[in-house]
């Protein structure tokens, strides 16, 4: 059993399961969706038959990234014919990622040339390095960032103006969705935008934001399908933000629409708040994944609503620098 991902038992007031809450930001408690605790190795054994293992994450959470790295290694022991697929790189940077894996560039060159996320070294380096040392293919699975932004700004027809070289890289059907995901997406925006009425008839800006989300999901699904075609008999381990995969929605629903024959397993994170107990958490969240892992919550980003608003406006200004002409 690996430290950091153990199902630790003991006595805790009000916790009928006898499982202690995660004790640090690195700790996670793993269960199946019925609440039975599992070690990393036990989880890997259960996941071994899957064609695709989708590991949802809270971006930047130490415990989530530690679990991903440990689970990748444990799955490799079960099935060494593995492919790592990552939301954290976009498909137009696949060549830069391949050059790094082949030893032709250094890590700083990868980070610069492949536009790696700012938390690459702390969060994703272990998984990429594990793959590099073992010759495991790594798939840059996300849609190009500029195309996603411009769909979010201009809508579905933006794809019609792409040149053929770029358009062919994207899925044939880039906006496949499900009613449940649509409802969930608009509910996540908060306020009145979460109503059924607004999810059915949102404003243009909100609808375009949803289309941009679908483009990410369908592109990731398409890339996973392509990875399986190029690597028959391999198991794909796909990393993504949990919203893209939990409840078997998002990229999981898109993947299952493309390939209903695939065995897809979803591992989803859940925050363990002060006062929670395992039994209640599992009951409330068991639909999120075939397997769950429980983490300490991330720190509150802002206490000042004014500073939060300023930060959001800065992000919008940065996005506005891109031309969609």
UniProtKB/TrEMBL annotation:
Residues that span the membrane, as ranges: none
Lineage summary: Bacteria, Pseudomonadati, Pseudomonadota, Gammaproteobacteria, Pseudomonadales
Pfam family, one: Cofac_haem_bdg
Signal sequence annotation: none
Positions of the Haem-binding uptake Tiki superfamily ChaN domain: 43-254
Domain of life: Bacteria
Record InterPro entries: Cofac_haem-bd_dom (IPR007314), Fe3_uptake_reg_CjrA_prd (IPR016773)
Species this protein is from: Marinobacter confluentis
Name of the protein described by the UniProt record: Haem-binding uptake Tiki superfamily ChaN domain-containing protein
